[in-house]
# Entry
Amino acid sequence: QVQLVQSGAEVKNPGASVKVSCKASGYTFTDFYMHWVRQAPGQGLEWMGWINPNNGDTSYAQNFQGRVTVTRDTSISTAYVELSRLRSDDTAMYYCTSHYHTTGYFSFALWGQGTVVTVSS
Amino acid sequence: QSALTQPPSASGSPGQSVTISCTGTSRDVGGYNYVSWYQQLPGKAPKLIIYDVSNRPSGVPDRFSGSKSGNTASLTVSGLLAEDEADYYCSSFAGNSYVFGTGTKVTVL
# Structure
């Protein structure tokens, strides 16, 4: 079964960092870029960045430059997103999402279940 | 990178059609045939319903169709059903990044 399974909810203080994981199964992890997308409560989707699991290359949205890091561990087919210097407006649902060969390489066919990150003192 | 512009809401009666626009620039929507559309039900992850402007993934009804002209892409839902009531987002490749639309809430009257 092709799926992405994310780590559990997190509660963090302002200024702290959070790291969310996303484990892929049912397909070859290194075949497709992994992306991270977030959605603040009641708001729209926001693309954060991607990683090429094959070689570790990354690209980040300008809004997150310097605060976000996406990594991967190919031995366990898992991608990570780490967001630092957290602010209250980073409170959101964080999704990992990937392409899939049946729907091309520029759309997001596979989605994790989401991880709630709450930033509050 | 600014979000793509979508109308906040759209509505139609069962059986009618509704069309949602998604306006970007030549650096995203207009520059590539890589616009995709997502349906998001409350409390759920988004679901891909259109990729590469006008292609439907397996299992998506042909009531959903996509098109593009210049810097604006469109999603049409024909023969509206109650189950189509959801939020819809467009997305476009933009070189080395991606951008999503502002989202449209579709209400079935």
Q: What stands out?
A: DSSP finds no helices and nine strands in chain B. Chain B has a mean pLDDT of 97. The interface with chain A takes residues 1, 3, 32, 34, 36, 38, 40, 45-48, 51-52, 55, 57-58, 89, 91, 93, 96-103 of chain B (CB under 8 Å). Strands of chain B lie at 9-12, 18-23, 35-40, 47-50, 64-69, 72-77, 86-93, 98-100, 104-108.
